[in-house]
## 1
Amino acid sequence: MATKRVIVDKDFDKIIVRTHRLARNITMRTKSDGLYVTTPPYTTLTKVMEVVEKFRQSLLEKWSLVKKAPIAPGFNIDAPCFKLSVIEGNYHCFTLKHVEEKTVIMCPSTLDYAEKKNQNLLTNAIIRALKRRAAEYLPPLLNELSYISGLHYNKIKITGSRSRWGSCSAAKSINLSCYLMLLPSHLMEYVLLHELSHTKEMNHGPQFWELLDSVTDGRAQSLRKELRAYSTKLYF
């Protein structure tokens, strides 16, 4: 069974160490949120850090290519169904303003954008805006697609899940991630039709894909492949 340890680091912010019983060597991979290290069982943290130090410079060069810039004035999301901007001005605290279909986050001019707590505040503000917009946009769209396809559900819930775009229970309750708002509209509709298809076929067997093909003009597999290129961490 894999175990996980997190080490605070001056360069990578954090080093995530996972021990896996099948690992034979120490392997390292840079991601936007830190350095990920996989080790064989019984590897000490001292040994891990020795290996990290040996390759630190080259790993930092790779990390510089994948790490995300901090959220700051000038940050924009311009997805087809969700638009947001971060601006700076003479404000005493964070302020959210909804202008037509766009969200504007207004920040104090004295804010230190390098501080983690401020990045967390900005991230949480964006998530709240995403959930608000998703709650307005997704239920009517699901109703429309349900009517057109003849696939009926009982309940809908908007979630903050980053691990799944959506899910459907045996009771025909559909959960939809607010991060769907970052997708192109045709992929958003594909996810909703995917979950609606589960109201009749709870698995991913041939009958499920046949049903999903029937409501996506035969494009179920091509849309599935296209969706895999997107991540809930696409923007922040």
## 2
Amino acid sequence: MTIRVVIADDQMMVRQGFTVLLNAEPGIEVVGQAVDGLDAVARVDELAPDVVLMDIRMPRLGGIEATRRITGPAGATVKVLVLTTFDLDEYVYEALRAGASGFLLKDASAAELAQAVRVVAAGDALLAPNITKRLIAEFSRLTVTPHAPSKDRVDGLTERESEVLSLIAQGLSNAEIAGRLVVAEQTVKTHVGRILVKLGLRDRTQAAVFAYETGLVRPSGY
């Protein structure tokens, strides 16, 4: 199945460069481009892509609010991959909270770009866990948000589900979680699915943000 991509960036060279790179990859097709956040929302409504590569700083409507509008409606399935120039950008954390599934540095190689799109489209792993985990931990520690989710929601999880959620937030893949808990990988997938349903979350990245913001996982070593 071909992964349909929309690229949203106010720089023409970025849009065209990523379009060329992605269209050269098997199973990926760039179906549209957007010059700002409002354009991105319109292109998503028109083209129904699987993944949006979203710049953060754009005129008229920025990438954070555009991400919120794209991923917010009930039943929304499109994944947003945030583009940034450096990996500890506070706006990236806000984009993750708004609904983005991961982020990618603009200087990524063609292989890294294609892999990122495939990972986000699949929704089965954090993008660049070592970096994403650090970013989530750093800004959940530094950012005081009055809208942080209630920890009471965690009480609806079983002990094993809470354990799996904690390991997701630490950046472990399903296979790594299975190894840590000495269970089958399919069992982990089942737990992950139940966690997302119970907490009303979209994907593993949102689950990781939730775990840090509720204090289930404490940032450390950053």
